[in-house]
Amino acid sequence: MMNVLIRLIATAILVIAATTVRAEQTALGGLLPPETPLVKDSELTITVADYQKALLGLPPKQRSGIEHDLTTLQEFLLELYTEERLVREAERLKIPDQPDIQAQLQMAQRKVLVSAVVDQFKAGLKQPDFTDLAQEYYQTHRKEFTRPEQLEVAHILINAPLCPCEDPNGEKRKRAEALLAELRGGADFSELARKNSDDKASARQGGILPKLVTRGTLVKPFEDVAFALQPGELSGVVETQYGYHIIKLISRQPETVPPFEQVKARILEKLTKDFQDTNHKEYVVRFYPKPDAFNLGMINALTGGAGALGVPNAPPPSPPPLPPVR
Fold first, then answer.
1. Of the candidates 323, 314, 310, 176, the residue with the CA atom closest to the CA atom of residue 239
2. pLDDT tens digits, residue range 202-220?
3. pLDDT tens profile 130-169
4. β partners of residue 247
5. What are the two backbone dihedrals, phi and then psi, of residue 147, each rounded to the nearest 5 degrees?
């Protein structure tokens, strides 16, 4: 059923794009006669013209991928052939005559048309040069671009139960303290981590955690100790809900703010989107009904409320969501 709807929605798109078909004939296989068969059997023939029309129902990027890759093109033609066969089957079963299907198709066509008129409006927008505004935004929103202090941390973990009664003699802690003594005596941290750490993922890397650490990403006792260390320094035995840790700080990257040029494109993209969103909203609002256009009594009657007696009991509805900015 969904494939049928997709195929018929594409037909609605073609109504909007009728003039585009002629303009893009050469780009979309126009070197071949339109009636040239691309897929043909006793049931159905898919021609170059069918292919051209179907491509126009796709976004430009997806269209380009199909045009320039043989495997993708073959998959597209397979899908097109199959969908057309399913559409014919739907027609044989008189599915398009069902009221709910007709309503869905009308809704789909309405959404296509709404998107098309919004896209046309956007295409006509004269976008300002946001370069100066981008510089101003950078200066007033520096925190947004600040990369927080980051640590490269290694640890050795000795798993310990949450309940001390399960380790009454403190053997786990004694083991952690013995490893710490070895490290302070000159033992290699990486080797001890590989052989002894119960955190197997980091143990394979000599105890080094797979990601750089920022504040708020680890359990607090571990984090507090790690951020207090200097590069190359060892902690004492640190207890968390996971057990006993010996922490080593490998390196520290201070908080930094990247230069404007590194984030300029990102800021321009945001300012452009904000500009489009604002203008999009202002454009669509022109088409909203006025509050007094709503027959509240009869609307409430539809729900069996007090309005069934002709007494309005609900305010006008909020504006509908805007069509998406694509």
1. 176
2. 999 999 999 999 999 999 9
3. 999 999 999 999 999 999 999 999 999 998 765 555 566 6
4. 155
5. -90, 120
Element (H, E) at 77: helix 70-92
CB 265 within 8 A of CB 286: no
What is the rounded radius of gyration, in angstroms, for the C-alpha atoms of the chain?
Answer: 33
Sign of the C-alpha dihedral computed for residues 220, 221, 224 and 226 taken in this order: negative
How far apart (Å, rounded) are the C-alpha atoms in residues 34 and 48?
5
Return d(Cα 78, Cα 64) in angstroms, integer.
Answer: 17
Q: Is 263 helix (H, G, I), strand (E, B) or coil?
A: helix
CA distance 57 to 42: 27
CATH numbers and ranges of domains, the chain: 2-116 (no CATH), 147-253 (3.10.50.40)
- Of 70, 98, 91, 92, the residue nearest 11 (C-alpha): 91
**Cα(65)–Cα(137) distance, integer angstroms:** 37
Quick one: angle between helices 2-16 and 48-55, nearest 10? 90
- Whole-number Å distance between alpha carbons of 146 and 133: 19
Evaluate if residue 231 carries a pLDDT over 80. yes
Torsion on CA atoms 70, 72, 74, 80, rounded to nearest 10 = -150
In the β-sheet with 234-240, what is the strand arrangement from edge to edge? Answer: 150-159, 243-253, 234-240
Measure the CA angle with vertex 214, ends 210 and 220; round to 5°. 100
Distant-in-sequence, close-in-space partners of 43: CB < 8 Å, separation ≥ 6:
85
CB neighbourhood size of 72 (10 A): 13
**Distance separating alpha carbons of residues 13 and 55, to the nearest angstrom:** 11
Integer CA distances (angstroms), 122 to 14, 69, 93, 321, in order: 20, 31, 41, 18
Asked if residue 29 lies in contact with residue 77, where contact means CB atoms within 8 angstroms, the answer is no
